[in-house]
Each structure stands twice: as structure tokens, then as C-alpha cells.
Recover the amino acids of this structure.
């Protein structure tokens, strides 16, 4: 049950940063098209605020995804159905979700979570919320039990859910840009210095 609460928290953080990024972007677009003049505000002020809001939305989105990825691995490894290095330490019963460790189908009078399930192409079945949290929030695109690749296109049939996947990919690209940007700029500056370019 703890893993579901953690996923809910990170999913809330994920959506919040998504909304902040969109709001910041629209404020910048409004400033660019001069809508701020209607409100008697300098466009540069709106542009600054929009950029700051968008930056912090994307920054905390990247940070939240990285922490969620670490937490997803730790929680799943603690349950024993998943290990980052190799084979799981426990075997998965057909009626158990490997992400949260709870029963999939709950009969009347039993304790558990009543929720729809989702079956991956490897025939392993999980709670729908758990496998979505594993794939979107935890950034794991493999089965939590057998490590087979998850087909995200099959999982997200609804076109309104696809922006969440695209936002996750954008955060990954930003991570690479932030990590490799200073190195690339240093190489360019070094080449300019060697070649005598100003």
C-alpha cells in the first residue's frame, strides 16, 4: 500500500510541474503577442515571470522524476519481485501485482485493492495504476518482473494521456542537455581558443 501512496505523491508532483511548465509557456507567448499591454504591464515583466515559472516547472519535473525513479527501484526491490541487477528473489503468483505486492482480483470479504488490471505483452498482469506509475513516474519501460520491454503505445490508447509520456521524454532530454550542455560548451570554447576564433 505504501508504494501506491508514493506513486500518488510523485504523480501529483509530475502533474503539478507539467501544469507549471504549460502556464509559464503561455505567459511567455502572451507577452510575445503583446497581450500584457492590454493589462498595462510591460511585456518584459510577463516574459520574465513566464520564463521563471516554466524553468521551475521543468527543473522540479526533472528532479521529481529522478527521485521517483530511485524510489520505484527501491520499493520494488524491497517487495522482492524485482531486482535492478537480475532475477527476482521471489516468484510471482498469478494473482499478485509485482509493483505493490497486493492481490489483483479481490473477492468479497477479502482485504485488498479493487482496481482494473492491465496485462503486458509478456502476460504478466498488474494493477493499472501501479503499472502506469511504474512506467510514467518511475521511468521504467520494462516489466517489473521479467524485464521485457513495455509497449507504451498499447498502454496509452487514449490520445489525452500521450502528452504525459511526451512530457516525460522532454524531461529526459532536458536532463541530457543540462548534464552535457556545459561539457559541449567547454569543448566549443576550447576549439575556438585553439583555432584563434573570437
Amino acid at each position: 500500500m505504501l508504494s501506491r501512496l508514493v506513486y500518488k505523491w510523485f504523480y501529483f508532483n509530475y502533474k503539478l510541474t507539467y501544469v507549471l511548465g504549460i502556464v509559464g509557456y503561455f505567459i511567455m507567448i502572451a507577452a510575445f503577442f503583446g497581450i500584457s499591454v492590454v493589462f498595462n504591464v510591460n511585456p518584459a515583466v510577463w516574459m520574465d515571470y513566464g520564463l521563471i515559472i516554466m524553468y521551475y516547472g521543468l527543473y522540479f519535473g526533472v528532479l521529481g522524476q529522478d527521485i521517483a525513479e530511485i524510489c520505484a527501484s527501491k520499493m520494488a526491490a524491497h517487495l522482492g519481485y524485482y531486482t535492478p541487477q537480475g532475477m527476482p528473489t521471489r516468484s510471482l503468483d498469478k494473482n499478485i501485482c509485482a509493483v505493490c505486492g497486493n492481490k489483483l482480483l479481490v473477492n468479497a470479504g477479502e482485504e485488498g485493492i479493487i482496481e482494473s488490471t492491465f496485462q503486458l505483452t509478456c502476460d504478466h498482469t498488474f494493477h493499472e495504476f501501479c503499472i502506469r506509475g511504474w512506467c510514467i513516474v518511475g521511468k521504467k519501460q520494462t516489466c517489473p518482473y521479467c524485464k521485457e520491454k513495455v509497449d507504451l503505445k498499447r498502454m496509452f490508447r487514449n490520445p489525452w494521456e500521450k502528452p504525459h509520456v511526451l512530457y516525460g521524454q522532454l524531461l529526459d532530454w532536458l536532463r541530457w542537455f543540462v548534464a552535457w550542455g556545459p561539457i559541449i560548451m567547454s569543448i566549443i570554447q576550447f576549439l575556438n581558443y585553439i583555432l584563434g576564433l573570437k
